[in-house]
Structure formats: C-alpha cells, structure tokens
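User: Structure tokens for this complex, please. No commentary.
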Amino acid sequence: MDKLVKSEDEAMLADNARGFLDEAAPVRALRDLRDAGRTHDPALWRRICDMGWAGVLIPEDAGGADMGHAAAGVLAHEMGRTLACTPFLSSAVIAATILRRIGGERAKSAMAAIAAGELTHALAIDEAHKFAPEATAMTAERHGNGFRLSGKKCFVVDGGFADRLLVLARTGEEGLTLFDLPADRAGITRTAQGMIDSRDAARIAFENVEATGDDVLGQVGGAMTALKPGLEAGQAALAAEMSGLAAGAFDMTVGYLKDRKQFGQPIGSFQALQHRAAHLWCEIEVTASAILNAGRVLDTDPNEATLAVSLAKARATSTAQLAVMEGVQMHGGIGMTDEYDMGFYMKRARVGSEWLGDYGYHAEQVAALRGM
Amino acid sequence: MDKLVKSEDEAMLADNARGFLDEAAPVRALRDLRDAGRTHDPALWRRICDMGWAGVLIPEDAGGADMGHAAAGVLAHEMGRTLACTPFLSSAVIAATILRRIGGERAKSAMAAIAAGELTHALAIDEAHKFAPEATAMTAERHGNGFRLSGKKCFVVDGGFADRLLVLARTGEEGLTLFDLPADRAGITRTAQGMIDSRDAARIAFENVEATGDDVLGQVGGAMTALKPGLEAGQAALAAEMSGLAAGAFDMTVGYLKDRKQFGQPIGSFQALQHRAAHLWCEIEVTASAILNAGRVLDTDPNEATLAVSLAKARATSTAQLAVMEGVQMHGGIGMTDEYDMGFYMKRARVGSEWLGDYGYHAEQVAALRGM
Amino acid sequence: MQDDDRLNRFRSEIRAWLEENCPAEMRDGRITDDAICWGGKNWEFSSDAQRSWLERAAARGLTVPRWPAEYGGAGLSRAEEKIFLEEMERINARPPLKSFGISMLGPAMLQFGTPEQKRHYLPQIARGEIRWCQGYSEPGAGSDLASVQTRGEDMGDHWLVNGQKIWTSYADKADWIFALIRTDREAPKHKGISFLLIDMDDPGVTTRPIRLISGASPFCETFFDNVKVPKDRIVGEANRGWDVAKYLLTHEREMISSGGTGLSGGRALGAVMAQMAGEPSAQDPVLRAAAIRCEVDALATGLTIERYKDMAEAGKGVGNASAMLKYMGTELNKRRHELIMSACGSAALEWDGPVGNRAADWLRTKANSIEGGTSEVMLTILARRVLGLPGA
Amino acid sequence: MQDDDRLNRFRSEIRAWLEENCPAEMRDGRITDDAICWGGKNWEFSSDAQRSWLERAAARGLTVPRWPAEYGGAGLSRAEEKIFLEEMERINARPPLKSFGISMLGPAMLQFGTPEQKRHYLPQIARGEIRWCQGYSEPGAGSDLASVQTRGEDMGDHWLVNGQKIWTSYADKADWIFALIRTDREAPKHKGISFLLIDMDDPGVTTRPIRLISGASPFCETFFDNVKVPKDRIVGEANRGWDVAKYLLTHEREMISSGGTGLSGGRALGAVMAQMAGEPSAQDPVLRAAAIRCEVDALATGLTIERYKDMAEAGKGVGNASAMLKYMGTELNKRRHELIMSACGSAALEWDGPVGNRAADWLRTKANSIEGGTSEVMLTILARRVLGLPGA
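Assistant:
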C-alpha cells in the first residue's frame, strides 16, 4: 500500500482544487444559492466537469481521469472546506463506482456521460430515518418480462435534480436488486425536501413504475455486489468532505481567536481556548490519517475496505461535529447569526453525519470487524 | 419528602464527623495501616461505635440512633473525604438494613451487637468479576433439616475480619436464599485479597458448610426481600462515600493549584486549569444532589428507591473517577508518588466504582426505569 | 405533620382547580416558544383555549405563583409552588404565560423597585398585558457585559438615550425594554450604569431582527436615537444599575439552565429514542449508551435545580454558584439535542419535517451556552469567586 | 514494481530469519517493562531464551534496525523496518531489547555526536551492554524543563557537577546517565545548558527509587555531589544542550505516544472485553459502547503514528506536531486502561490478581500524560507554535 502521505500528484491536485474552489465555490456561493431558493448550480458543476473531476473514478477509456479514491478524497476534502454544493459524491463517486463495478458497454457509456457532465445520478436507498440498506422494503415485483416498482424513498441526496436514479428494491425471494432509471419515468414523483444544509434532497414515491431487465444493474437479487463498493466509495468521500468541513470551520475559528479582542486581549490568548483549539486540531489530524488510509485501501484492496471506510466515516463524523460545536461556541453570538458562515458548516456537518450511515452505524461496523 | 438541603441535625452531624475524622482517621491513618500490613483498625471502629455511628440505621429499641439513610450518607461522605478505613458500609449500613427488614428478636439482638460494635458483618455476594446477584451459582442444597453450602465468593468486602458472613446462595428450584453464618463455621476458608485500595476484601470458599434453618435470613428462596433494601442502602452509602472521596481529592487539588508555582505564577491562575477545576466542581455539586436525594427517598419511600439509588451510584462513580484523574494529572509527577495521598484516592475510587455495581450496571438500571 | 396536611390539602385544591380551568388543548405538554403565550399588546392568541387559560390562571395569580397577591401573584410558598408545578406536569399542562417580565424584570423589581413601581408594572406583567424585553449586550462587547457604551445624558427631568443594543430577545414583539445605560461616563466601568425602563413606542426607538442559523429571529438589534426617558423610569438608584443587572443575571442563569433540564426534558430524549427507533436497544447501542449517560446527567441536574431552589428558600444564598446551573444546564441541553437529532436521523434534517422542527430546536440550544454569559464566563466566575483561584 | 519485488524478497528473508532465530518463549506478545530485556551490565536474563534472542538480534543488527551497520544496526529503510515490525507482530515476538539508549540517546547521538562518540557508544547500546537513563527533570521545575539548576562548574579538563535530578527512569538499574546540566549560569535560561554523559559508577553519583502509586519504582531521584565529568563526555556543543534536548523531546513524545496506541494495543482492549465478559454485547452495553469509541480512536491514532513516520521518511519535518502524538497517544492510553479495568471488574482490583497486575499497568498509564511533558504543555506547544495563537 502507498504511504500515508499525499503523493506529489495529490498535493498538486489539492492546491489546484483549493484555488479553484476559493474563487468559484466559496461558502458565499452556497448562501447565494440558498437565498435564490435553489439547491443546485449547473454552471458550477459544468466548470468542475470541464476540469475532469467528475471522471476522477472513471476509466480513461470512458473519458475519465482514473485517479483513484485517495484523489477523490482530496477533491471531496477541498469541497468540504468551502461547502461547495455539487453532485460530486452522488454522481462522480457513488454512481461511477457502481457502474464501473457493473462493467460492460452500457455502464461505460453511462460513465462517459457522468465524466462529461452530461448526466447526473442520485442514489435512492433510504426509506426511513436511518441508513439501513438491508431493511429495504420497496418492492420490485416481476411483471411480464420486467418489473413493477412500488415504494417510497427519502433523503435521496441530489435526487431533486438528478437525471437518473439508482434505486434499491426488493425482488421477492431473490433479494435486493439495483435499478438504474431515468428520473422522469412514469410513476415516479419527486418532492423536494427543505434540508437544513441548503443542499438538495428529495422524497421520491414510486407507484407501479415499470422497469425492464435492461434497467437492472448487475444481477437480480445481487444488488450488493456493486452497491457495496459504491456505498463504501461514497462513505469514504463523504468522510473526506467532512474532514474538509472540519478543517474549514477550524480555520475560521482560529482566525477569529486571533482577531477578536475581549477584556483587552485577543481571545485566542486565553489558555482554556488555546487548549480546546489545540485539542480540536489534534482530532482533525488524527481523522486526516483515517481519511487518507481509507482512500489508500480502496485503491489497493477494495474488497477489504469496510474497516478502513467505516473508521474514516466514524472519525470524520465525530470530528466534524466537534469542530462546528467548538466553532459556534468560540465565536459567541456572532456564530449563531445567519449572516456569519459558521452556521452553514454546522448544518452541513449534521447532514453529513447522517448520510450513508451515522457514527453509531460505522462504529458498530468497526466493532464487528474487530471482534468486539 | 424532605427538602434537598441538609437539615440542621444533618449539618451538625457532618461537622462533628469531619472534626472527628480529621483527627482520628486522616489519610495518613490508612497509609499507616497499609504500611503495617493490616486492613482493619479495631480501635478506630471502637471509637466510631462509641459515637453511635454504627447504629445510624438501627432502631432505638435495639440500641441504635435510627437517624436514617440521609444521615448515614452524611457520615459515609465524611468518611470518604478522609478515606477512613472502617466496616461502616458492610456492617452498619448493609447488614443493619437487611436485619432490620428481616425483623424479629434474633435480628434485633444482632442489630444491637452491630450498634454496640460487638460484631461486624460482611456481605458475600460476588462470585465473578462483576456484580450480578441474580447470577449467583453457589448452592445451598437441602440436607436433612438444614442445608449444605458449597461454592466460592470473591471481593467480599471486610470479609477478611468480619465475625459473621451474609451469604447469598441458590437453593434448588426455590431460588436465592440469604444465610447469616459465623465466619468460623467449619468448611469456610477465607483468603485475603491484596486490594489496591489497601482495604479489606477476601476470597471465601464454602465446602459443604452446614447450615440450619435458623441460619436462614427470611424465607428460603426469598433472599431479595431483605437483600434488595440492604443492597440499595449500601449502594447509596457507597455513593455518598465516593462523593466525599471526590470532594476530598478536589480540595487537595484546588489547594495544590493555589500553592504550586510554575513559570513564575500559581498554576491555578492558568485559565485552562481554572476551567477544568470549575467543571469538576460543577460535577461534584450535581452529584451531591443525587446523593442527598437517594438518602431522602430511602428514608421516605424505600420500596421505590431503585432509580434514586442507581442514579446516585452512577453519578458518584463517574464524578469520583473524574476527580481523581484530574487530581493526579493536575498534580503532575508528585501525584504519581506513593508519598503523596492522591494515589490513595485514585485507588479507592476504582474499588468503589466496582463494588455493588459499576457505572454501566447502575446506568442500565436508570435506563430500564426510565423506559429507555 | 400539620405541614404535610396543609400541603396535601393544597394539592387537592390545585388539582381540582386545574381540572376545571386548564383547557384540554393546553394539556399537550408543549413548552417551546411558539406554543406558549408570551402576552403583550400585540399578542395574537393561537386559540380561544390559549386565551382563556391565560385569563383564568392570571385571575388565580398562577401566572406568577410566588409573587404577592397585591402584585397579581398567588403568594405561594416554595413547597406549594412545587406542588403546583408537579400537578401541572401531571396533566402535561403548558405554562399559561411566559415572559421576561415574569422571569427577569419582576424579580428585579420585587427586590429593587419602589412600591409605586411594583403596583404599576407587576400586575401588567402578571396578566400578560405588557411584554418586556432585555437590553444588556452591545455590539463588540461579547461576554464583557459591563462595557456598556449606550449613553444616557442627564437632562434634568429625563435622560437622553443614544446607542445600540444587540441580542435583545423578541424586541420586535415587546412593548417595553429594560436596559443598561451608561449614565456616568467618568465613573469606573461598573459604577456609571443605570437600569432604565423604556417604552418601545417612544420616538427614537427602532428594532431590527437578527436572522439566526436556525432560520428564526428571536433576537434583535435595538437602536436608541435621542430617546427621552423620564427620571422615574429607573429600577434602583442612578448609576447603581450594575447591582440590579448582577442580581438579574443570577436569575437568568437559573432560568436558562432549567430550560434545559428537569424530568420532563429528560423524558423527551427517552421518548424520542423510543419513538424513532422502535426497539432502541436493538438498533444503535452506541447511541443508546450516549442517551443513557445523558439521562443520568439530566436527572441529577434536575435534582440540582431543585436543591438550589430549596437552598434559596432555606435562606442559603446561592450567589455565584448559579453560574453552575447555567453552565451545566445549557451544556446538557446541547448534548441532549444532539442526541435527539441523532435519534431522529434524516427525519430531523428538514425544516419542519415529519418530526416537527427538531433542527430549529437543536440549533436554538447552541445559543443557550452563549446568551446570558457564555459557558467560559461561567467557568471563570466559578473558578475565581467560588473556588478562589487567583487571577492571571 | 521493482521496489515491491525487493520488499517482498526482504519480507521472505526476515520471516525466515525470525522463524529460525526467535525462540518460542519470546513469542508471547508480552511488551510490558518486566517482560522485555533492557540490557546493561547488571541485567539478569529471565531465561536462556531471552539471552539468545538478544544476542541473535544484535548480531543481525535488529535491536536497532534503522541504525547504520557500522554502529550495530541493520541499516533498514523505513519500508523495510515496517515489514520487520509486521513480521514481528505476526509471530507475536517480544522486542529483543528496549532501552533509553535505543529510543533517546542513540537518535541524539546520531544527530549531534562526533564520529568517535558514535563508534564508542552506539554499538554498546545496540548490543545491550550499557543501559542508559535520562536526567532532565529537577525537583520543583515540573513542566518547566529548561529551569535546570544542577550546575557544572568548568574546571578546565572537566566539569564539576552538583545538584539533583528527579524522575530519572530506572536510574537505579542504569550504567550511565545523559543529563542536562547548567554550565553557564549567566546566560539566558535556554542558552547555558549542556548535554553531558555521566557514568553512574563515578564517585559522587547516588540514586534513590521513588515509590509510585502503582507500588512500582520505575523512577528515581539522582544526586550529583562533586562529580567530575571529562570534557569529551558531552553531546553537541557546550551550552547548546537545549538543542539536543528539544530534538530528543520530540523523539520521546513519539515513543510515549506509540506505547499507547497501535493495532496490537487496540486488540488488547477488545480481547480483554471478550475474555472477561463472555458475550460482551449482552453484558454491559454502556461499557461496550465506550470500548467501541476507544477502539475507533485507537485505530485512527495508530494510523496517525504511521502517517507521521511516513511523513518523516518523506522528509516532511514533523517538529512540534509530535506534541500531538504525545498528547493523543497518552490520553488514549489512559482511556483504554480505564476501560480494561472496568472490563476486568473486581478481578483487577488486586495486586497480581487472577488477571495479572492490570492495576499496576493502569496506574502506570497515569504517568504517561505527565512524563516527557504534560498534556497541558503539549496543548500549549500546539496552540502557540502550530496554530500560532498569541501569548497571554
């Protein structure tokens, strides 16, 4: 396995990404989007696709850059730092990983469309308030040569605008099956959810939606073969995003501690705050190791990545939550105002904590794999 | 229920106890006892009995002072403050409460002997590494008119020197039965355990120990009727002891913070230590409420005291642990030396945490009673 | 014994009274700001039930149970009040009225006000006729509350007030404001402040809501531009307003802390856990363990609030130790709402989603440990004044 | 690819070598101070196996795998060392030798020593012939390491050393001590200190063990009474010893932190939980949840130590950030041992009880966050030097 240090390529990628995002997608961009009542900025996504980020996990023969999961984590981290609002995780990470695992010509052309920014995908998996794929109740009954899908999904991230939906459903005795459907297929109704992080999510109802065998990704009853790697890629990238979010909130907080004066001195000179800031920095550093490790393991040993990925997501969740809680508290009143950016970090941290499995879910995965 | 404020009587009792213990049983006394290779100081216990403390829960007609559980908690708290090494909990709280619940003339004379300091009792209940009375495996088989007891107990606090043993055993289908036996009955072998808190505990083997019906406390198979109140009284008093221990360790720490200079100033002027000390004080104050409440509930509504008692023991455990950990850390190197008293607090806190149910045990009791 | 009899009788009476007077709609246990009546000239009752519940309670003195009857209270003892609150909780009754007049100005006025002021202002508060807000903080001052810059120039029969306050809770909905104003600019920081009462309708008073991260705007900025304040609109002596403010801060701390604790709050977490997860123990042991720890701490903190109230009634001054209640209560409340959010999962990630506006409640708690003195200020108060640790 | 081939070949070689040379008795994974050989003139081997394991490893350079061969090492690269350690862990091998010479003096001497010093001292360390201890702390100085009072008067060809050190680990068992001595009393605090090497057998050196709360006495007080130290027994330049000390502190932090983490340490907790509680999940969910959190943090901290080693090898200076490893590693280790104690219950409350001396191990961890710079000092270093926060 490669070392737990960013390679030169990765460092350069991070620098470039940071430069671009500071200009094109600072927190203000998310604020403007929200104030305009929108949850997606196609122009931003277009620019990102033009830089090739959407193809980070897509083979070169499908028009991708094939840089791997560690590199995807580098990009996600930088996007987390500025809370860039894009379908990167849904499309370029989760859908791309699933399609790549499926393989074949159709998947290849779908990946090419993702890399080129022609199509966006969303993963419709949750049905209740917690991530629990194995508890999927939505049905895909065999009907003639095809299937009829009925059920409800919620918290479909980027599902409000995605062109295609990857839908997990239960096929009788055969088990869980993954479908790849156009979002406008008859019987599909999408309802936007007013999310606290101002990003896109939808509640989606499926009422006797017709699907053919061609709409099935992989084998009937064999959803997990491709879904599991897709989920793990998404979890690792989300963890990377949250580590970037933590770093962004932390930088803002340390800046405030240096600037803000109270009782005649910068508040950052108060030892109690210094120690808390230093502790937070330590937590962020430790989480960074878990993030980089998850990327490395996904790139070298993807079938044995669960421990590394769950470790990364668990650590990223607790660290991001600590970073935003300390961030708001150390900012005092101003941190509570909508005018200031810290609240955006706090709200995104909360959504990121839940998406694709929360702390408890991933901690239990770690425990199980460590025999505890 | 009485108010959550010490009554005048209780306040006076506390003052008197503090004065006595500072003189007769400071930490140095425990140290001297340990250095002399002993675990019990009969002379100290004699003086305590002469003051009437051993009768705090014993009716006046049996020679007790009948002051109630809140008062017992006041005494235990003060004993915890100086780590006074006495069989107060085993004899004057647990055994006395059990005997009182049993009632009758024999119990009355046994209580009189406790109050007068003529007999000490120990509760032999644990068999494995965790408190779990319901899992008792030791057997008391019916044999002729009586019973034969076989099995092993461990962590019998004060069991190395107690005159009598209250022993929990399983009687066939009838369930758990409580026996009151002289410690020197044939077939009983006691082995001293070298406890980290320098107090007394024994591993006790029972090999075909003969017991008669007269040795049974209460009904065969009905141990819990009297044992449960006894355990709860003991848990509440132990919690009070641990709250006193926390207060003692805290006072020592705050004293050190004021005296000790480093980098040219008293270390207590450093804000990070100030905030940690203040936080610890808050935890101690909050725990004090739970302790007093447990005493009040035991005095007014003893059959519904489980929640209050488990709350007190859980809080006292976490608070005492925090107090000794902060105490050692804030003292730096000197806190690690045997020469300094802080280590005695730390070791007693660990033993107190385990005895009669640890944090997890009591937290689960709280959870169950709160429907969680 | 006689005492117990009297209290038992009181319990029966109050239970019967509640049975008769508390409308069924008011028995849903909701205690959030939007469910409870705050009163004031512009209050719009959410229902007839809310109105009659206020009117009946006020007529019986039970909006301010411990205040003397002559000022609109019921003159209850602490023990009686406890029974009243227990009986309220038993039927899950909403409080009939909540206001800063009740929790803050009233106590200050009872302590520092003139007889005329008490007779004039307190009954208006008790009946929910006048809604008050608090003007302490100023921009840039943060935790340093005594650095008041808003000035009141002595013009003989009135002060001419100019300046700006921030974090004035619900100033946009309030009728009057009580505010700290610097009336002597030469005196030391804590010595030149007065505690003035200002009608929000007076010329020169304007207010602007501050949007918070929760989307709500409970706080405002409030501006004073040549506002004339007559000389009798002062609580306590001129330039001694800091005494009143300190007294009030203690009350505020207790109020904020108890908002976050108590048995009912504790039940909230357990109930949410059960509701959201079916068999909670089976679903997420790590979350459940955290919830149990929170419950243990919540119960003990609730008992501590009780204990401090009992101590206060027993004449044992609580003083700076109230900073403990504020600190522990608000930090606990933050923990609890983090756990509630976790228990609710994605259902709580929407504004006004399927489980109500949990997210707004959660975000609101983040302010608890900032407003009324940050947790850091509380810890410093405790370290210096209670523990006697030396200054740097 | 070629690299990989080379490393794979190395792995095969080292595996075969271990198979042949590591005695079966040394494959029990014990890493406590009493199980491992510390070497020195007075070392008494606990078994023939311990002796031959040391001799074989030293002959192959594997007591100090990364040191150059000319100084007794095996000259391994970081990647090779990693493989060596993995293979050691695979067979649960005890380290053949542990000493402050290896972990502290060696690195300092490799960096600051003269060629003569390296040739003289390093092979003795590598072979376990000379056992070193460290003389930094002094009574009353606490975290303020640079306030060295022990003085060395310049007598021309030697320094005359007088004073006292404290917390000198295993000084009573050591042959030599490396110590910070004030050789210029006029210079500013950090500028007048030298890093001297002193033979414990020299006249005037005495030592006295300090009994700890765990009952053990790993630390001593060490006294210098007119001890003559020849001028060539110095590492680095005279009065520049603080540079050496700072360099070493970084190493010490890393060593102390890694003692507390790593995958094997993590397994220890899980194994204890399983061993003690049968079905741990069924028994105490609150404890299990805390253990899981600890495991998550331990794994991530272990990876961080790996990452920092990789960074160091990649030439990216770690510098003050090593304070993070020290802080996080030692605090984690305290947490882990609290949990191990809880998992073992009353079985761990005896000295040398049925589960071994868990209590002594637990109490030992309390010193980790004090020795080598307290957690508080680490946090201040990070706040000031890494985060750039201002001084008070």
